[in-house]
Write a structure and sequence with these properties.
Blueprint (H helix, E strand, L loop, with lengths): L1 E2 L15 E2 L1 H19 L12 H13 L3 E2 L2 E2 L6 H13 L3 H24 L4 H12 L2 H9 L4 H20 L3 H21 L4 H17 L1 H26 L17 H4 L17 H22 L8 H22 L3 H14 L7 H4 L3 H21 L1 H25 L11 H23 L11 H6 L10 H31 L5 H6 L6 H13 L6 E3 L2 H8 L3 E3 L6 H10 L4 E5 L10 H12 L3 E7 L2 E6 L3
Parallel strand pairs: 5-6, 5-7
Antiparallel strand pairs: 1-2, 3-4, 7-9, 8-9
Helix pairs in contact: 1-4, 1-5, 2-3, 4-5, 4-6, 4-7, 5-16, 6-20, 7-8, 8-10, 9-10, 9-14, 12-13, 13-16, 16-17, 17-18, 22-23, 24-25
Amino acid sequence: MVQAQAPAPNGRLSGIDLSVTQTDIVVFALLLVFGLAATLFYQHSVDFLGEDVFYADCARSLLAHGFYGIAGRPETNQPPGLPAILAALFAIFGYSHVICLRAMAVFETFGFLAAYELLRRRLPRLVAAAICIVLISSPLYFRMATEGVWPCFPVFFTMMAAMLAFEEYENASMLTWRLGWGLVLTLMVVASLMIASGAIALLGAMIAVTAVAALKDRTLAWVRLKRLLPVLLVGILAQGWWMHRKPAPLEWPLLGFPAPYLQQLKVKSGNYPELGMATPAEIPIRIAKNLTEESGLLVQTLLRHGVNSSKAWILIVPVLAIITGWTYSVLETGGGLPEWFFAGYQFIYLLWPWKPEERFFFPVFPLACFYAWQGIKLVPSLARTKPRAVGAVCFFLGMLFGASGWHWIYTHRGAEAHGPRALPDELVALVWWILALCAAWMIYTGRPPSFLVPSSRTGAWFRRPLTWWRDTPSQLAQNAGWIVLVALVAIGVVGEIREARNNMKLLDLSAIQNSSRNLMAPEVEGALWIHSHTPAASVVMARHLPIVSHYAQRPIVWFAPVSNPDTLMQGIVKHHVDYVMVIRHTFPYYLPDDDYCFDRLLADHGSSYRMVFRDSNLRIFQVVKN
């Protein structure tokens, strides 16, 4: 044990536990190594490749004009926290794409360092280390941190830091340290709110923690409320300042975006606003869909492999484990700030009507893994104390997933289904039915499996060293688990090396335009053509505004996903559009896509447009004004 400083008489130095073990040193070193790799092997392009250029251009606008927005368009949806951070970096180091990407890698590293510190207070150090190292070694995290500029990594750090500061603020015994940690907590909460609106879950969590304390001890709740009240008031004022900004004028009569969050919840799909308003019956379907998408993303992040969403068990089991672990934590402790924050954050994004993305969920994956571990660890204990209840649940799940697995095998029968690739599916389906049989035995006998009972012959065998090996079967099982974790990290490292090599290939704009890794290549090509072939005052209409505005350097109007040709024509006339960029996207973010909307417009008003450029999936039309 390495002791940084002698503890205070109360056992802690102003609420801070400075004890550091060799495990901590190794974990910190590994996290720093992965963070350093992300800092060095960023995407070597001369400029931005996607919509994340919005944050850099907003930062330059803040720095140069004190205006938050792009191309003279005020921004009222995305909080200004990340652009403010980038503006500070640009003021020190100058404008650079590299600075932005390295900032993301630094925030990712600090976020995992804070997450480890938070988890090691609740878990064995090795388990907390395994969660953080498996996650940071995932190619998905590496790709996000080295290829784009997103609020998810700065807010990941500030939210984890806020939860750590909350614990130190609660435990600090000296007034000086309490004031210091209170200031840190307030700054981290405000920073989180200004970086991502989802951080409002922090305010809700602090209110929930106080309310739960009031159910047990009103005196304790009153003391906690007096301590948290300044933090809550400052956070509410900051959020209120942002929410009550004058909204930008609407360009199109369209549901959803760019309306505020609560109004966007009313639509069926934010990506396809013309589908109309959602009905109450569709909200549970949306939540279930977002939940399975998040579960699939978590599994893919951990296992380094894509997930077949038709295999229900691989999506449902993690959700059940997380719910079980979270419920156990709340029932045991009443729920701390992490528990209520996690619930609030999930509530916000599970209701979100847009297509789920990695950046929405990456900040809470360490907590999700923590609750999943809690849920998995709880199952043997519950099986010993409540065998019939556990047996009933396992029987239902075993029959459901077993039948689902055999149905999937049957529906995908064929040459591939009967080959070696199908063997894992058949084995998994068989395992689920074996589990159902064991669960039925638990229901019938009211006893847990014998290997869970230390006094039984099987339980004793699991805890007795083998004659041909010094370890017990239980220890061998644990060692096998650690081997699997090491293998996952190794696979992740190989994947990160592959991503790093790809990042080194994009060096200039010609490579950007021709790269299969850049889904915005047509936007870049079209914007560069507009920049070199049109007058500076030309108004351009395009679907993806930030990237087009960045390269075209022209006034811009959003090409809304509107399929009604009359509405589209009225908008073009109203906003004095000179050029329209039409792209057939491989994976359109908005629906209907550009070409569908504009081709309907051409069918009714073809004489008003003249095509001036065409290349592959890109067309540029000049508006013929008369």
